[in-house]
Specification:
- The protein is built from three helices and nine strands, in the order βαβαβββαββββ.
- The chain has helices spanning 17-34, 49-57, 110-120, and strands at 10-15, 40-46, 64-71, 86-88, 98-106, 126-134, 147-151, 157-158, 174-177.
- Bound molecules: inosinic acid and magnesium ion (MG).
- Inosinic acid is lined by residues 48, 73-74, 80, 103-112, 156-158, 162-163.
């Protein structure tokens, strides 16, 4: 099959479309069972988590609301700066709410650790994290993640919401970015 222009940036497919959907269904069942009878609020971290969150919430059998936050992590580089800044805050007051943070990937953990501390200060009834992907080898700070989709090796991945310099989010699978696209020192 001829590679599309987009796919030329991908070295290898790591998680196929079907496998992603299967796992998202499983997570949806798990979350639905755990949150039965509670007023669930999904908090998505823009922009990468949008795709995962849209699929996950359609697998939930409990009523839920959604809101979004944007925090700074990477620019065009592939490495976390450690400097975290809120670019867009929640619209909803989460005090007394059951909050589930939905993230695309946990790498160093710096972004999520900041976010969790920030949200905890707002006194939600409960606060848990659901991440599609995690790179355990890269962890610099310990974060408590209740639901994880897949553990992946230390490779820079794109697709299904994950970007490199804002591109590749629209790939239906998760793939490894071509080595020659990764800038030196990253
Ligand atoms: P952390 O603060 O190092 O855990 O970085 C978390 C954020 O970095 C994620 O929400 C992603 O936006 C981004 N990120 C980390 N690893 C990757 C990757 O392999 N591909 C695309 N984005 C990534
Ligand atoms: Mg990103």
């Amino acid at each position: 099959m001829r590679q599309t222009e987009l796919e030329r940036g991908v070295e290898q497919i790591l998680i196929e479309d079907e496998r992603l959907q299967e796992r998202v269904s499983e997570l949806g069942e798990e979350v639905s069972a755990d949150y039965a009878g509670r007023d669930l609020l999904l908090v998505g971290v823009l922009k990468g988590a949008v795709f995962f969150m849209a699929d996950l919430m359609r697998r939930l059998t409990v009523p839920c609301e959604i809101d979004f936050m944007a925090i700074s992590s990477y620019g065009a580089s592939t490495d976390s700066s450690g400097v975290v800044r809120i670019l867009k805050d929640l619209d909803i007051n989460i005090e007394g709410r059951h909050v589930l943070v939905v993230e695309d990937i946990i790498d160093s953990g710096l972004t999520l650790s900041y976010l969790v501390r920030n949200l905890e200060a707002r006194e939600p009834a409960s606060l848990e994290v659901c991440a599609l992907l995690t790179k355990p080898e890269r962890r610099q700070i310990d974060v408590d993640v209740r639901y994880t989709g897949f553990e992946i090796p230390n490779r820079f991945v794109v697709g299904y919401g994950l970007d490199f310099a804002e591109r590749y989010r629209n790939l239906p699978y998760v793939g490894v970015l071509h080595a020659n696209l990764i800038p030196e020192g990253a």
